Amino acid sequence: MSWEQQYNLISDDFFKGRIYALAKMITLVENNPDSAWKIIETLKKNTLRDAPTVGFTGSPGAGKSTLVSAYVSMMAAKNQKIGVIAVDPSSPFTMGAFLGDRIRMRDISESENVYIRSVASRGSVGGLCDAIYDIVDVMKAFGFDKIIIETVGAGQSEIEIVYVADTVLLVMSPDSGDEIQMFKAGIMEIADGYVVNKIDLPQANAFSVKLRNTLALENDVKSKRKVFEVSASKNIGVEELEKWIDEFYSDMSSSGEIFKRHERRLKRRVRSNLMRVMDDIISSQEVGKNSLREFKSLIVKKYIQEEACDD
Amino acid sequence: MSWEQQYNLISDDFFKGRIYALAKMITLVENNPDSAWKIIETLKKNTLRDAPTVGFTGSPGAGKSTLVSAYVSMMAAKNQKIGVIAVDPSSPFTMGAFLGDRIRMRDISESENVYIRSVASRGSVGGLCDAIYDIVDVMKAFGFDKIIIETVGAGQSEIEIVYVADTVLLVMSPDSGDEIQMFKAGIMEIADGYVVNKIDLPQANAFSVKLRNTLALENDVKSKRKVFEVSASKNIGVEELEKWIDEFYSDMSSSGEIFKRHERRLKRRVRSNLMRVMDDIISSQEVGKNSLREFKSLIVKKYIQEEACDD
Q1: At B151, which CATH number?
Q2: Are A160 and A126 in contact (CB under 8 A)?
Q3: Is the pLDDT of residue B126 over 70?
Q4: For testing the chain B interface, which of A138, A300, A302, A305 should be mutated: the one with the most B CBs within 10 Å?
Q5: What is the pTM of this model?
Q6: Contact A282/B269, CB-based, under 8 Å?
Q7: How many independent structural domains does chain B possess?
Q8: Domain encompassing residue B9
């Protein structure tokens, strides 16, 4: 069955808000990477409004899933409809902890207003699967009020999430080795807000102070970024966080920042798509006796042929 | 002055082994990224032999620079000529520690047989500057017996080094938070050998045991990878490491593995080059009202024009 046929079978129920049709639509997009953008263009014609996308990232053990649960429960209780995308890490080492997280998320997954989708990041160059961009668009078309992305922060995905989410929160915990992470290149720079979770731990205050000092050492823009002291499991500080996220989004909307971020995201997606085509060609060709320049010419020639065939 | 003119001015002295001409040749390649491959092709006509490339990576504080110093001193004392490429991290947070490393490297930098070049990784997508590939080729043409690359392991560069170096060593230390790193996705998988440095520390044995157990949990190929217990500052275990690196390289040569790695590297360089051109185009174009597919078509069209102009 072509994607058009499958699409037609589910689109009515999809726009009526039936969850089974949402799940099928996401699968359709995941299974047809080459047609995904055509499906999304079709969906977009019926998309009523843009939904804010919020990304939560941080080290394993920082309590991201607990925080996302608390935050999402709060919104669901106000009858907001929330889509959650949980990105699985590829490493078998962290798989165990992650399954634990999924169990902690059970309470929100039993709410009528919440839909959770797990996505494997396996095999993706950027750490986050390209399909996440597409899934966000499907969720927007479905009419969610907000879309939440949770990534187990392992390397590149922390950086990549900036491009997927409108707002990025870095979740840290005083007991998970984050003192080291804190100084790692690239990680501090990406967040709009910092959440110090498990604020009831004895070492939490010292951790917070250190974080604020570290941020103050940086340039003006960054030091203005917000630090939240939270205990997700005890529901301390989550409401303040929720309020700030909404305010931050409307500030971005009025300042035009959100437009810049959308533009950056679209460029990123196109780049990612072009690279995928290029990578397929590169891996299928033998280098042989070609020099760097000769092999490059070969790839470019093949690439031009490929793109010419794509309508 | 064109690159040809500059090249002609220094090439005689370069092939006579004059260090000033090597430094100038590297700068020439760095300053002319668009002509770098042409310069390298010209150099290659006079390159007598391939030199093994050994990469050392690992977290800040693991003692990489001390280890590289000890290893390189050992080879220099046997009258081998060694080129060292030290990759600076981009983050201002780690800059301080890095300057300290450079000072520790002073003893080898005063040897006649050693040439050290620092390279900034700033601005590079992959974490390691593309120019490093080119610099390695220039060093090979110069006639070094071995080329050493040291990267301060910060994220992506740990993965990238696999493509630049023939042999990759992951340097760890029991006192630098590496217990956490150990389980991080992607980092364990890249190394051919693991060096537990500062083996004289009290916690070193427990760390070694844990590392060996972690490796044993993985599949057969990985568990065969070598673990070295070393104290770089006390010169313990460095000679064994040196011997193994040479044996490993000659094993790779006879098994054909080295050919595979060279092929992979060439593909990587071509990919990186193509992406750079593509990124320049993407960042210079406005998205405007274009959809994903329309913007992609725009980029591909520009790209094809660009490549057509390149001889």
Answers
A1: 3.40.50.300
A2: yes
A3: no
A4: A300
A5: 0.72
A6: no
A7: 3
A8: 1-46
